[in-house]
Amino acid sequence: xxxxxxxxxxxxxxxxxxxxxxxxxxxxxxxxxxxxxxxxxxxxxxxxxxxxxxxxxxxxxxxxxxxxxxxxxxxxxxxxxxxxxxxxxxxxxxxxxxxxxxxxxxxxxxxxxxxxxxxxxxxxxxxxxxxxxxxxxxxxxxxxxxxxxxxxxxxxxxxxxxxxxxxxxxxxxxxxxxxxxxxxxxxxxxxxxxxxxxxxxxxxxxxxxxxxxxxxxxxxxxxxxxxxxxxxxxxxxx
DNA sequence: AATGTCATCAACCGCCTGTCG
DNA sequence: GCGACAGGCGGTTGATGACAT
Length: 238
Fold this sequence. Notes:
Blueprint: H1 13-26, H2 31-38, H3 44-55, H4 66-79, H5 83-88, H6 95-119, H7 125-128, E1 159-162, E2 168-171, H8 174-178, H9 201-204, H10 214-220, H11 222-230
Antiparallel strand pairs: 1-2
Helix pairs in contact: 1-2, 1-3, 2-3
The structure holds a DNA duplex.
InterPro entries: EOBI/EOBII-like_plant, Homeodomain-like_sf, Myb_dom, SANT/Myb
Domain Myb-like: 3-55, 56-106
Keywords: DNA-binding, Nucleus, Repeat, Transcription, Transcription regulation
């Protein structure tokens, strides 16, 4: 059958509303199904990404706090680029957000390192005084490593260490990690951090319009209701 | 004010993994 | 056990806004 052309690029407000409505209706699973019944000309993947990274009500938005920054760096030193795993430890933050943060931060760091090396007569002294997380670590080549043994600019390197389950884990000196980050303001403890539940979706729905009347729903989401008609309403049968 | 550069973030892509028939 | 499919993950790109010159 003829494949309907999928939309790409930035999401419109109307699309967000539509997606949120159907996720509330059916839950955040079966993304291909959701994409279909919602009438959004988006792939299931695209819908999932939009929901997870932007529309989810539990998302915290805004700048990373110093505490979050430290946690990210600490967890990255343990787990490497396991962004989703790291994200679990930072409620309200997405893997994408953390990944972006890391990339930005590490690029800056790599640039600083290059400058330092260029201006230092003895480049080997750069990390030699760092107290290593693993005190018995061999001398470390901090040039970034990619899977095919090429060097990745954004990865600042670290020891590649095999762990039990076969995962590779990079280990960084904590001094190395912290030194590039401003220490947090002492007064800014975790207790002061107010989670900001500010998914922009809720701005669009000031009066709980996600839970509108049947008539309103029918007007707003005709695709869904026509779809249901075609399916003999079997969605709710089970 | 105009232009260039950099930082940030949303979104896409391709690969991997888990599940189901 | 195998193939198909859906979902998840990490890497990467492109648009945009902020800042510097």
